[in-house]
Amino acid sequence: MKNLFERIMDPAFYTMLFGDNARILRAKKDMLESVCKLFSERFSRSIEGKDVCLICVPNRVELLGKHTDYQGGETLLLTGPKNFFALSAPAADRTTELVNVNTEYGSTSLKLRSREPEMLTEGEGSNYAYTVAKRLLNNISDAGLSRLFPGDVKSVFYGDIPFGGGTSGSSAKLISDFFILASVNNLLSDDEFVSLVIENGKKAGLKMGSGGVNDFSLALSMYLAHHENGFDFGDLKGDRGVGTFGGSEDHTAIVLGERNSLLYCRYCPTEIIKKIKMPEDHLVVVGYSGKKAEKTKEAKLKYNRLSEEAAAAVKQLNKINRTGFDLLRDFFQGQPPGEKADLAYEQLSGAKDGLRLAQRAYQFFRETEVTEQAVSALADRNISAFGKLINASHYLSKKYLRNIVAEVDWLQQSANELGALGATGFGAGFGGSCYAVIPENQCDGFILKWKEDYFKKYPQYRDAAGFDVYTACGGVYWERLRFK
Known about the structure:
Blueprint: H1 4-8, H2 11-18, H3 22-43, E1 51-64, E2 74-90, E3 96-100, E4 107-111, E5 118-121, H4 126-142, E6 153-159, H5 169-184, H6 191-203, H7 215-229, H8 249-256, E7 261-266, E8 271-277, E9 282-288, H9 297-321, H10 337-348, H11 354-379, H12 383-401, H13 406-417, E10 422-425, E11 433-439, H14 443-457, E12 466-470, E13 477-482
Parallel strand pairs: 3-6
Antiparallel strand pairs: 1-2, 1-13, 2-6, 2-7, 3-4, 4-5, 7-8, 9-11, 9-12, 10-11
Helix pairs in contact: 2-3, 4-5, 5-7, 6-7, 7-8, 9-11, 10-11, 11-12, 13-14
């Protein structure tokens, strides 16, 4: 077993996870050193045993496929270099503590019980830790596997994913909390727990062996998505989740990401269609606007509106066509996506709330068309066509989803004016980020000018916005290491 402090000093460890960008690697080492320092100061005398679990959970960029996953659509995903690091170990007392290195966000403490965790103190994101613990405890109990009840843990974590940035920091936090509990308590290597997740994945419709992905990892990614949205996973009953009615794309990218590859996926259930290489001479650059797409009550209502409109469109299309489909994906079988978009718009525009539902369905099918064409463009190494399709996706989101704020729209237009092959806002919307695809040899100058121009236009975001290269990174990583 490797030593934690040797691992922190090993350059190959960071390269394995994040690639070879020197700026990224320096930042990751600094992050992990700060986690280790605080863990040693805070918990070296209050943990059981001599081992700790090291956990790395990345973020994601939704390249294409805006608001399509929860209707069985397809998305193209990049697993990003922003992440959470955590160290976790069994607690010597009967209290779980999750401590953020960033003290302004506070810490979470709770006691694990057979079905209902007891919250003691609430830090930023404590609802994610509580949701994970409660779902896990209840699912294990219902499955009759009481011997697997997780014990309390001590953990220190730190993340550099911008809150409300649209790069899935909330899903990464939820997944981090799961791995903090599951890794220390040996669930991830327990045959009964592994079988429980895989068998319920099959009941949820998963095709095992999809995309050459490990069956447990595939099933776990969908199971964790259902932690967040509160849905049942096979026979494993859900709860209220965290209040957003999203799909599985975030958890797919975060758990299943692979270095130097993009994931082309389909959902409901999750399926890895193929892994695609980004052209080596081009980069993805993400500009975070500084305007947060927070999961506040108001923001959740806006986000959930798009989900609810899609569900209403399904209901209305079923009524019109005398069908019984569950998802937009299933309508107008045999027709190409563009024709599906036109048919849906024509049928829905004359119904109650017609224009609103017609636009939502139209965007779904047109975005599906754009995603399929973009995957083909990448396969043909036609980066110019790929860039134009990225721009088309932005237009669809702006016009039909109405979730592109002025700051993100400005970033998209500015990126194109500065020579990007294409750019688009992405993620849930109502704030967040824009990404651009640029030639690698123009990277430094492009970022400098993009940032400079943005701060001239929106100086109020100077302390919050961020502009970074996003290489395609690996998915969730964890290992047990010697601490003492």
